[in-house]
Amino acid sequence: MNKTGVFIVMLLIVIGGAGWFFAENMPQRGAPMTGGGMNPPSDNTNTQSSSAEEKALPIPPLLEDKNPEQGKAEFDLIAQEGTTEFFNGKESDTYGYNGNYLGPVIRVRNGDDVKVNVKNELSDATTVHWHGLEVDGTEDGGPHSGIESGETWDPEFPIEQPAATLWYHPHLLHKTGEQVYKGLAGMFIIEDDISDSLNIPKEYGENDIPLIVQDKQFSSDGTFEYNLNRHDIMMGLQGDTVLVNGAVNPYLEVPQGKVRLRVLNGSNARTYNFKLSNDQKFHQIASDGGFLEQPAEMTNVVLSSAERAEIIVDFSEFEEGDTLELTDQGTPFMSFRVTGEEGHQADLPGQLTTIEEINPSEAVRTREFVFQGMGRNVNINGKQMDINRIDEVISLNETEIWEITNEAGGMMGGMGGNGGMIHPFHAHGVQFQVLDRDGNPPPPNETGWKDTILVSPGEKVRVIATFEHPGVFMYHCHILEHEDAGMMGQFEVE
Ligand SMILES: [Cu+2]
């Protein structure tokens, strides 16, 4: 800063609010304010231009069930190419299911026999994996279930698990990252007698809201592409713009009452630390695989890629016109606008469900999974994915403990702590329970069913599961760039 600049700053400090002085005497009024971080507290021009871009949160439609018969459901899903306008007047090439970006919500009931007709209208092959669904390997939609361009795939499966917020996305070998990033993902909701009977918000789109949170790296022209640089290969592709249901900085109008948010981290690699802008407490009622036994009171929730949390936020104390923001590490990315409408008031049930704890003594063995390597060398137990190799064989209906260790951060961790990589571990076709993290019991929001678990650098997490579905399934890191690079293996249940 030159001497004149220093003088102006000092003058500002000395005379404080004497704006008239500058109005009368500054030759270039306003110039120091743009460059010097000295914006006045209420810059109406900026507020108006940013609010003009704000969009109402898009709510993905519920996909029509074509089978009127009770206990059966049939859906049509088309993977297709399109364009999406994330910023006014700027179109980006995207993928979507039954649309240009993301997909509709598939909602089924426990006990339903489900059929999905998947048509691939992309120019590339794809697959559709039902993330979190307990189905046989042939219906799971992993890399073995490739659908060539122009072809169809019609999996049929019964729903045999409790109410939960799951999701679906492609799982093509080496191409999962690209296809998810371009927009292929959707929510898959299971309801059951328990979710029906609980006095919690459950009006879809009104007070039961899906939030698919993703990050993108946009170019200055408002488009994005899937091009990995060296940093992306190491850390997974992490963008600077957060989208919710495909919208940048959207707002949601909420009634004065409790609202249920089904939060899905649908990002390729990023881990979020969600918090409300006023540090207000909320309750997590469900994890990946369904309800927790009791609501867990929290001020923040951490979700790594593919993890879900259903949370209840109470807006009863707010007045019409009030706003609240949802933040990641303190940075807002969507807002809630409270309306004059009265919302869901009932207290949360003290008990949501009962979860039968799997006793570790039932486990027939402990299997170890060590996450190692960096960049293109990421691996599990020293091996990279080979579609022609089965890595682990499990007997049908047996219970096992899986011990997942993250050693991959070792080298960089030694260089200064935060260089270590987290790895979200995901196993297909099964829901597990967390036994411990480095020998300590899991936090309350990890005491329910899980299918994806964040494993920090140097950490060891033990989970337990009973394998009730036959077939070939994947286990892998859910940082999609790590998965695509080979941090994946196959287990066969027989
Ligand atoms: Cu990873």
TrEMBL record:
Residues 41-51 have a biased composition (Polar residues). InterPro entries: Cu-oxidase-like_N, Cu-oxidase_2nd, Cu-oxidase_C, Cu-oxidase_fam, Cu_oxidase_CS, Cu_oxidase_Cu_BS, Cupredoxin. The keyword Transmembrane helix applies. The chain crosses the membrane at residues 6-23. Keywords: Capsid protein, Cell cycle, Cell division, Membrane, Metal-binding, Oxidoreductase, Transmembrane, Transmembrane helix, Virion. One of its GO terms (molecular function) is copper ion binding. Residues 81-193, 236-316, 374-494 form the Plastocyanin-like domain. GO terms for biological process: cell division. This is Multicopper oxidase with three cupredoxin domains (Includes cell division protein FtsP and spore coat protein CotA). It comes from Salipaludibacillus aurantiacus.
